[in-house]
Amino acid sequence: MNMTFRWYGKGNDSVTLADIKQIPGVDGVVWALHDMPAGEVWPMERIQEVKEQADEHGFNIDVVESVNIHESIKMGTPERDKYIENYIETINRLGKVGVKVICYNFMPVFDWVRTELFHELEDGSTALFFNKEAIETISPQALVELVTSKSEYTVAGWEPERLKELNTVLDAYKNVTEDDLFDNLKYFLTAIGPACAANDIKMAIHPDDPPWGGIFGLPRIVTNKENLKRLIELVDEPFNGLTLCTGSLGSNPDNDVVDIIKTYMDRIYFGHVRNVRIYDNGNFVETSHRTQDGSLDIQGVMKAYHDADFQYYIRPDHGRHLWNEDCRPGYGLYDRALGIMYMYGIWDTLNRKEGDK
Ligand code: DNO
Description:
Number of helices: 14
Radius of gyration: 19 Å
CATH architecture: Alpha-Beta Barrel
Bound molecules: D-mannose
């Protein structure tokens, strides 16, 4: 296992590389050029700059999250070829600095969706929250306002660029079905496959969050065990893999995340580990990583990775906001650092039990 920590970049994150250095056992930072609009080629000097910053602290930059996909690629419109060319050029450039995994998503318009960013928990901390009923009544515009106005930082997945011309894009998706999305994903993967192979880069698709379609009438496909099989089979080559986000898939109680991890272990290149507590009415809140604190079996998740001698990358996912930390929603230092120590607690104990030490 290669432990990583998501970092939004110098001047764009309340957490510094020096802070991350003080968390035990972190090997690399998960990064991106967050201000680059989807579809544009990433400048080489800026990629190099991140590499140098990470090098200074002894971190690898093997994982990028995300290189976002232009909507035309998801919708399958004629301009897609130009944007796919750009994507390939970015892959080639990332290959030059040794990037191994690119995390991306194929969610139409919106990335992750929540109805509250700072929902108070019993212990006084706050966390991201999803209210099933509220999502039925809120308008897409109001949701954008809610997510983007609460933080001084740009919220990843909710970049202004992505949300520009919201109504037009929402409208354009009216005739796009799940099958169309699968076809368009196949077209994209087929086109980038050779560049990924040449650069030894794995593409790791992130599940839809929450993992069901229908929100604002939009289709979603990376939602459950069957669909993961279908997407692996779209282009059945090693470069076509998964970011296995327990919190995203796990917010649908029908998804058994431990079983899913075991089933697709060979194609998991990046693990996002996070717990959620699902309420009877289907609402859910993000909790501490500890198994007892939520609805997911995080010990089972870590054991599945450990049993498989997982060689790829893992990161703690969203954390709660603790101790009055002022941070980007879900991405403070403290709870994610606690998450790492919980994961290592499980991991190291499993090592010891097997007599490895
Ligand atoms: C949310 C993240 C997502 C993720 C993208 C990957 O915090 O897990 O925004 O980075 O879906 O493309």
